[in-house]
Design a protein that fits this description.
Blueprint: H1 2-19, H2 25-31, H3 37-69, H4 73-92, H5 96-99, H6 116-124, H7 127-135, H8 145-169, H9 175-204
């Protein structure tokens, strides 16, 4: 049980870093500019639910899709690890928004509508997060579902809470603080990406695992 709890915590931390709700706060504030507080709070809840549903679909339908396409889990883990590593490097360099395909500094030239696209998908629940949950959703018993499902719900909850707090804090949140959080998260995420690729390589090439 302790091993499952430790694995759930590890997956939650990794998935939280991949989704990166804190780094998306400036984009959220820009997307909801002009809305009243009640509408912002509703949108924050909608984003949290959307991210949770998208990741759950990837977790439970991703592997059957890979099997249908003839792609191994090891290959998915290596490919996902590369994407995660690129995202981590972009976070350390302060280029995460460019990597995710959103305008730098969260400030688009035109007016944004409060829509779950592209904020929920693919900016939050994007390729890196999808790759991770698909590559780490193997379960053999009902107890294993704890470390598969719980991290997804916790990260969805963290998205809702992050944006809910942002709704009330508004301009009091300093960009410098967000930058520090983003760079520290990127550094930790890079180590997790290497581990993810190493796990995939051992599955693709069993000899790498030693005797």
């Amino acid at each position: 049980m302790l091993a499952i709890a430790a694995l759930a915590i590890k997956k939650t931390v990794t998935l939280f870093a991949l989704v990166g709700p804190v780094s998306m706060i400036p984009i959220f504030l820009s997307a909801t500019e002009g809305l009243d507080l009640a509408a912002r709070l509703r949108f924050a809840r909608t984003i949290g639910v959307s991210v949770t549903v998208a990741l759950l679909v990837a977790a439970f339908l991703g592997l059957p899709l890979l099997s249908f396409l003839g792609v191994s889990l090891g290959a998915m883990q290596v490919g996902g690890g590369i994407i995660v590593l690129l995202l981590a490097i972009a976070m350390v360099l302060g280029k995460e928004t460019s990597f995710k395909g959103s305008p730098a500094n969260g400030g688009p030239p035109e007016r944004r509508e409060a829509s779950i696209v592209p904020l929920a998908v693919p900016l939050l629940a994007g390729p890196a997060a999808f790759s991770y949950v698909m590559g780490n959703s193997v379960w053999d018993s009902r107890l294993d579902l704890v470390h598969v499902v719980l991290p997804i719900f916790l990260v969805g909850l963290s998205c809702w809470l992050s944006f809910r707090i942002a709704c009330r804090a508004g301009r009091e949140i300093r960009q410098a603080t967000l930058n520090v959080v983003e760079r520290v998260s990127g550094f930790i995420l890079s180590a997790m990406a290497i581990e993810m690729m190493a796990t995939g390589l051992r599955q693709l090439f069993p000899l790498l695992g030693g005797t």
